[in-house]
Write a structure and sequence with these properties.
Length: 416
């Protein structure tokens, strides 16, 4: 696709397909959309067809997206959303304090009366183009900010018809379709890369289960079997301790130069940066300890799904009391092997912490975890194998981020 850069103008974007020359028109949104007032009075759609609007995913089935329906006792007064309709969500998001505007690309369904629904005027507007226009947070916020008044509870005070009151710059219908077709191809590429990453992660998970259950085994350099795996309690082959938090009421304990790590940073990753730092005085007046780079951490408790996650320190750092520091016996266990082993058993370890109503892990519970492990040479083979897969996953993630950044840059330059 040929795209040409233009000199900046108020009425044309800086990047444009060369076959289009006309200025973009400063058009009222009411010329592109009209309010859709159809309600679910005949109960054609049930609670399993209620839709949610996500900033990242767009319009999706509520149950598929959130795991359950949040519909009221009756859905007869809900708005009907046909495929191709535009929905405005009257609830603030971090990046969109005045709500978001999305196109329904999926199945028809219903939304609560907290949403506004609009029909696309097919003579003046191509729905996917408008969806790409409002996919930029800056465009959405700039358009809605003058229109929306917020109530005491941060709720949106705006009439559905009034949403269409202001103007945006819009090109001719053929140019709208050309722009939308281009970004559809870009989105397809991003989706393919995400699918590739998901398949690699699925493959890694499946091979992990087979390797750590010994269903699959490596052979040594001479093609011979490695020795049998040993089985020990984690407390027999590793030192397990936890950190501490200096008093928050003592400002002299904080904002020093010693990294301090909490469970919020633990996510099957290598921790290279801390969000908070303590002073030498804070260290000496608390149970915090400095752990060396390479120490394995496990979250014993924390918000959401944090409990049971593992990470490795890529820096010397202290930790809070919710982080278990695990330092294996180097004669028995490679730290990276243990990291991979425990990461593959995340669900199992969370179940251990749930036994007897206990919702947290503890040092004693961790010490009792059974660990099966091979000889060090076989551990290194396993570690190197997963390093190769992780490199492919990381490269694919980098491609996703680069393509998304490229797309965002084009979006910013292909709209007025």
């Amino acid at each position: 696709m040929s795209i040409k850069k233009h000199h900046s103008s108020d009425k044309v974007p800086s990047i444009r397909f060369p076959e289009f020359k006309a200025d973009w028109e400063h058009t009222k949104l009411s010329e592109l959309l009209s309010e859709a007032k159809k309600r679910n009075e005949d109960l054609k759609y049930g609670k399993n067809e209620v839709l949610s609007v996500s900033g990242e995913l767009g319009i999706v089935n509520q149950i598929e997206h959130l795991g359950r329906s949040y519909a009221g006792a009756s859905v007869h007064n809900y708005h009907v959303v046909e495929t191709g309709d535009i929905v405005y969500t009257k609830s603030p998001l971090k990046a969109n304090p005045f709500g978001i505007i999305k196109l329904n690309k999926g199945k028809a369904g219903i939304v609560s009366t907290l949403y506004a629904v609009y029909k696309v005027n097919n003579k003046t507007c191509f729905g996917p183009w408008l969806d790409y226009y409002f996919s930029l947070d800056a465009n959405t916020n700039r358009y809605l900010r003058p229109l929306v008044k917020k109530g005491a509870k941060n709720d949106m005070k705006i009439n559905n018809a009034y949403v269409l009151y202001d103007r945006i710059f819009a090109p001719s219908l053929p140019e709208q379709k050309r722009i939308a077709a281009f970004f559809t191809v870009v989105d397809k590429k991003i989706a393919e890369l995400k699918q590739k990453k998901a398949l690699l992660e699925q493959y890694k998970k499946g091979v992990m289960q087979k390797l750590f259950s010994q269903e699959l085994r490596f052979k040594d350099e001479n093609g011979k079997e490695f020795p049998k795996w040993e089985k020990k309690k984690l407390g027999e082959v590793a030192i397990i301790s936890s950190g501490g938090t200096p008093s928050r009421t003592k400002p002299e304990y904080w904002n020093g130069d010693i990294p301090w790590v909490s469970t919020s940073l633990i996510n099957f990753n290598v921790i290279l940066n801390a969000e908070e730092f303590i002073t030498a005085k804070g260290l000496s007046n608390s149970s915090a300890k400095i752990y060396p780079k390479g120490t394995l951490l496990m979250a014993m408790y924390g918000q959401g799904q944090t409990r049971g996650k593992v990470a490795m320190l890529g820096i010397d750092a202290t930790t809070n009391q919710a982080c278990a520091a695990i330092i294996p016996d180097s004669n028995k266990l490679d730290t990276v092997f243990l990291f991979q082993n425990l990461a593959s058993r995340y669900d199992e370890i969370r179940n251990i912490s749930n036994s007897g109503g206990q919702q947290n892990l503890s040092g004693e519970l961790l010490k009792g975890i059974s660990i099966e492990f091979p000889s060090k040479p076989e551990q290194f083979k396993i570690v190197n194998f997963f390093d190769t897969i992780d490199d492919k996953i990381e490269r694919t993630e980098n491609q996703i981020q680069q393509t998304q950044a490229w797309k965002k840059g084009l979006l910013q330059n292909m709209f007025v």
